[in-house]
Structure formats: C-alpha cells, structure tokens
Model the fold of this input.
Amino acid sequence: MSEEKSDNSTKKLVKILVIVGIGVPVLVELMTLFNLINVQIFEDEKDANSQGFDVEDVRGFGEGDTLFSDQASVVVIDELRIKVSAQEWRFALGLTSADSSSQDELEISVDSLSLQSKKMLSGDNNSWEVKQSAPAQVYGEWILPNGDIPTKLFISSDQKTGKDSTKKVSQEVPLDKVPVRYNQNQ
Amino acid sequence: MTFIHKYPKAAKVAKANFIVAFIALAIGGLFGFVQALHRTNVFRGFFNSGEYYTLLTGHGVLLALIFTTFFIAGLFVWGVTRSLDREPENLTFTWSWFWLMTIGLVMATIAILGGLVPDSSIRAAVLYTFYPPLQAHPMFYIGLALVVVGSWMAGADWFWSYRKWRAENPNERIPILAFMTLFTMLMWYVCTIGLALEVVGLLIPWSLGWVTEIEPLLPRTLFWFFGHAVVYFWLLPAYYVWYAILPKLSGGRLFSDSMTRIVFIIFLLLSTPVGYHHQYADAGISVGFKFYAMATTLLILLPSLITLFTVVASMEHGARQRGGKGYLKWIGKLPWDSPAFVGCALAGIMFAAGGFSGMINASMNINVLIHNTIWVPGHFHLTVGTAVALTFMAITYWLLPQLTGRKLKYKTLALIQPYAWFLGMTLMSNAMHRAGLAGVPRRTAEPEYSGFDFEPIFGTMTEMKWQIAIGGTILMISLILFLWVVVASWLAGEKSDKPVDDYIPEPLSGVEHTPAILDNMKLWFGLALLLVVLAYAFPLWEMVADGIFSPGALPRPS
Ligand code: HEM
Ligand SMILES: [Cu+2]
Done:
C-alpha cells in the first residue's frame, strides 16, 4: 500500500522535474532559435540596431575627453581609471593641458567625488604629482572604499579672464564607466 | 558482495581520490557562483574586482584540472581492478602516486589562494591556461608538475596490472573497461609531453628568475599541444561511463564492442595534432598549420558522432527491453526516475549542444567572431562543465555504494540534482553564448568597455546578465544537493551486502566480432606519435631555432 503511494509520488515528481528541468531548457532554446531566425530574415538589420538609444547622448567623460572646453585653458583627461592591487582600490586621474605650447602650471583641483554608493568624497586632501611642465601634466590618486566607483567629479580651475585676473570656474564631470585595471607591480 | 568486499584495497584508493575530487568540486563550484554574480553586477559584496583573476584561476584549476584528474583516477582504479579482477600490484606505489598528486594540488592551491591574502607575495592569478606573460609563484608550477608526474605513475600502475593480467591470460582480449583506461592514458602520455616541456623547461626556470626573457609563442604552443587533448582526457572517462555503464542503467547492454574500441583509437590518434585550433588568433603560427588543425578538428567530430549513435542505440535497446515501443515513444520507458541514468542522459544531450558551438569554435574564419568572448565559457560549460562534470556526479550515485558498501541516501534530492543542473546550465550557457555574440569579453570582472554599449542581436544585456546569474545560482543549488547526498550517504548510508545492482551485461555485438588489430597498443601509440611529429615538429623547430629564450622571433614559418 505505502509502496504504491511512494511510487505514485515519485511519478508525480518525475513529471514535474521533466517539465521544469527539460521543458524550460527546450523552451529557452526554441525561443533563441526563433529570435535568431526572426532577426536574420524578417527584421531589417538597421531597425534592429537603431532600437538602442544614441550612445553619444548619455556618455559620460572618459580618457581622451576635454574639460573646460569653452574656457581659455582647456584640459585633457589622459588617464582615468581604477587601479587595484590585492587589497587597495584607488581612483587615478591624470590631466594634461591641451595647449602644448603653454608654460603655465595647471591650476586645477578636484573638489569632490561622487561615488556609486552615493557617498561623497572630498577631493582636497590630495596633492597633484607634477609629471611634466610643458605642457603641464598632473596626476593624482584617491583611495576609495573597496569596490566603489566614482560616477561624477566636481572640478574647478583657475581660468584667466584678462591679463592678470583669473576666475575660478567649476565643472561637473559625469563619468562614463571607469575602467578597472589590475596593478601587478604593487 | 560488491566492489568494496571483493577489492577492499582498491576501494580505499578510489575513495581517497574521490574525496579530493569532491573537495575541489565544492571550492571550485563556490568560486564559479561568486564569479557569475560578480561579473553580472548582481552581487559584488564577496570581493573586489582586483581579486577576480585569483578566483577565476581557482575555479578553472580546481574544476577543470583537479576535480577531473582525481575523479578520473578513482574511476579508473575501480574499472581496472574490476575488469582485470585484481587488486593494485603494489600498494606502496599506488599510494605514492596518490600522495604525490595531492601534495602537488595543495601546493598549487596555496599559491592561488595566496592572492586573497593582503600583501602576500605568493600568488598565481595566471588562469588555468598558465602561459606567459602572466607569471605565478614557482610553487604553482612545481605543484602542477607534481600532479602530472603523479598521474603518469597512476597510468603506469594500470599498465602494470594489465601486464600481470596478460601474463596470466595470454589469449584473451583486453576487457573493455581496461581497454578504455589504457587508451585514455596513452593519449595522456602523448599530450603531457608538451605540458612537461612547458612547465619544467620554461615556466619553472622563469618563475624562479633563472631566465628573464622568454619567447611568448613557444610556451603558448606547448601549452596548446596539451590543451586540446586534455579536454579529451576529461571527456573519454565520461564516454567510458556512457559506453560501459549507461546502457546497463537504461536497462540494456552496450550496442557494439568494436565501435567503442575504434572511437578510443581515433581519439588517441587525433587529440593532440589539433592543438593549434586554440591559436587561430596567434600571429606567430602560419595559416597552413591552422588549416591543418581545423581539418583534423572537424575529423575528430566523427568519433563523437559514432558515440552518439552507439550510446543512443544502446539506450533504445534498453528501453525496448523495458517494454518501449514506437519510433520515439520508447524514450518515455527509460528510467527517468533514476538519478544516475538521468544525470548521464542529460549530460549526453548537453554534450550534443556543446558539439554545435564547438563546430563554430573550430571553424577558423567564424572563430574570429567569438574568440575570447564569453561565448567560449558558454561552450565549455556544456562540455567539461556538464557532459563531464554531470556524468561524474551522476555515476557517483552508482559507484559510491559499491565503494562504501552503503546505500544511497536522499534519493529524491539525488533525482532533483541532475535536472536542476540541466536547467541551470541551459540558462547560464545560453545567455553566455548570446552575450558572446554581442562581443562581451570573457575573463573579466568588468565586462564593459568605456564609451561603448553592446548591441545584442536580440534581447537586452540586462536580461542576459540576469539569466547568467540565475543559471549560476541554480547550478550552485544543484551542486549543494550533490554534495549533501554524497556526504550523507558516505557517512550514514545503510550498510548492505548489495547496496546497488552493479552487474554489467556483455555487449550485444561482443568482443568476438572485434578485429584483433584494435588491441595492438604499440601500433596505435606509434601512429599517434607520428601524427604529432608531423603536426608539431616543423613549427616548434622554427620557434626554438633562434634560441629558446629569445623573445621577438619572426612569425612562423618565416
Ligand atoms: C556551479 C557551477 C558553475 C558556475 C556558476 C560557473 C561559472 C563560471 C563563470 C561565470 C565563468 C566565466 C568567468 C569569466 O570568463 O569571466 C566560468 C569559467 C570557467 N569555468 Fe565555470 N562554472 C561552474 C561550473 C564549472 C565546472 C563544473 C567546470 C569544469 C569542470 C567549470 C570550468 C570552468 C573553466 C575552465 C572556466 C574558465 C576559466 C578561465 O577563463 O580561465 N565550471 N565559470
Ligand atoms: Cu580544443
């Protein structure tokens, strides 16, 4: 009697397992096949591609972009990444003056960093390392909480307005996805 | 009477190998789960991205190299002992290869896990394809070298048993279990030549600082000399199970003895010369050799197709014995309530799917489309990650009672396990394949490029990420079920004289129909070496002709 009962419940279990364990996979694969064929044959490829939003519009700043582009001294981001060693997680930023003939120092500072975790990090405890003077090139690193990534920088720069007058100009720099790179030498 | 009562010494050796294999499986599987959640950005609290390579190396080495090798050793000890009807010839020798492999494995693991210790100088985040420029602590390479030497001794142990058996049975054919073991090991001897040369000749001196410059192409080529054959070293033991045991589990018997032998011979011949197909993107190998590798790779599909035919035919025979009828209706008569059967059968189905993506990898021109994308892990989780791993797990449900003399516990959980693995792997691998087609790279914790959005052919990136994460989670659950059933049965299963039906019937078309030449090991081994020389001698010579340690050599052949 109880043998029969357990036999029946096993049968039921096997039924469920076959439906979920084999049926769902078969369905997933069939849907994939259908979609692949559908896209290849029935959808114009241009349509398929233009469904995504325009990448340029939402892109944040990254390496190679310029800051203060409407000001007198334009600055290029030549390094922007997370540097990781076994236990440290640092944000590295390198800036160069876009005017390669200029002898001026880069008067620029990172006021604060807004992080993915919604934390704000003050930028002022940092001092730039001057990498070269003509064109001016500086480099700085900030220790971040493990795994956190900056999403926006608040940067200000002293811009010449007249012969001897300067004015502090600030810019919000929303960042693109920051590349994370492993530092083997540290 | 079951195995442990007849051969208590061999049972102990096999069990020791299984313990190591399952510990590696547990740790490696956990790493896989963590990776799946981390790289999809679903949960990143376990570690930071800088430690990803350490985890990925642990996952690859512990699962693909350690779990497989130790499980295979245990399986072969069981098969050789049983089919030749003799305990290991000398237990001191047998235990010494086991301990040598274990010491090596522990060294390699310590080197890898050192990467998680702050300020540790011991690290080995070089991935399981360990060639320069990534460099590991010498302990990693030395440990792996010990594992390989141990595995050579294990093979020698089985040949030793065979020779003794042969002396007593001069006119008998090699029993099929022993045949498959010996041919797998012959292939292993051929392909590990490349690995030994790479590790002992180049990597150990380099990691110790004895040489500072190394030509990058040479160790890569030597690694891939080994690197494709190793996948058949994992796979052939799964075939061994499908040929020798699965027909019995489905209620029938093996379809053909000679087909089985032919398949193993083809693998011995062709596994190594195809290694270049992992180097399609390497500038230093001439396109002619790549083409040769592509042709032989497609040829090597043949034995897998023969296997498909033979195994399915054996299963159909089994189902008809159980009352199955019709063209396809017999499938319903298979024992879908037996965990060991279900695991092997589902593993076989997944292998067929892996074969399809494998054909794409193998085709030199299409390979460019998916090279180094997450498509590739999608492919090999079907092959080694399921065809091999799920077969090993499933057959454990049948072997463990024989090795421990205890019945399996929690049969319901054991039954859920293979279905769960199949579901989880379909989800994870399907999404990995699709993401790979969109260009998502493999081997990175941060799979985005800056200023660039992936454009999937269909679906969305977010949906694929979730599919990978959910698939990985189901796999982890399946793995926990497996480990739970094994530990519980091993420690507390009901003791019994006959804990499982371990009888293996004779093949339908038996050894009497098998040509004797198929058992000529010297002939096939010699041919295998010849094919390897044809494929590799010239390019390797070109690479070393201007000095082994001189980087920046000209493209080959120049
Ligand atoms: C719990 C089940 C598993 C999960 C969730 C899992 C997950 C993953 C993921 C997400 C990756 C890709 C990482 C990347 O390229 O960034 C990976 C790589 C890999 N997995 Fe698994 N895996 C599992 C089981 C297995 C099994 C059973 C095997 C082999 C027996 C295996 C062998 C490998 C190998 C060889 C790699 C490549 C490592 C490398 O690129 O160096 N995995 N796994
Ligand atoms: Cu291969």
Notes: Chain B touches chain A through 42 residues (CB under 8 Å). The radius of gyration of chain B is 23 Å.
